[in-house]
Amino acid sequence: MSFQPLPQSVLFCCDHNSVRSPMAEGIMKKLYGMRSYIQSVGVKNDLEIDGFAIAVCQEIGVELSRHRSRSFDEMEQWGDDLSSFDLVLALSPASQRRALDLTQFFHLEVEYWPILDPTGLGDNREARLLLYRQARDQIVERLTTRFGPAME
Length: 152
Fold this sequence. Notes:
By secondary structure, this protein is α/β, with parallel strands linked by helices. Helix content is 40%, strand content 13%.
């Protein structure tokens, strides 16, 4: 099976930058170290990092508690230009649309990965954790299918 080489820089995006994209950012950093510049943003940043996302990532040794949510607009204010990323991985339909709008003038690859949105699902803590683990595991599977096994 052939894997694609790691891009120099990857931007994950989703709706709020509070669950899926920070999980993906943290997991990719853990799997592949600092070989790529990895960031994440949301269409909006109206939510803080989700406690369930922190919990299920801690289970696999990924620390998310210090993550600060940010939007596409803030990203540019903070000096990260969208055109400087080699690959944008959109984890929600809304973020894919926003990324495509923003990148229409750049030669930039935008890929859509349909990752489960676990927010608001599940009747109790255990059921919710199960759904968040499912989203986390989908991200791990997508990354390792695309870029190969974790690097030591």
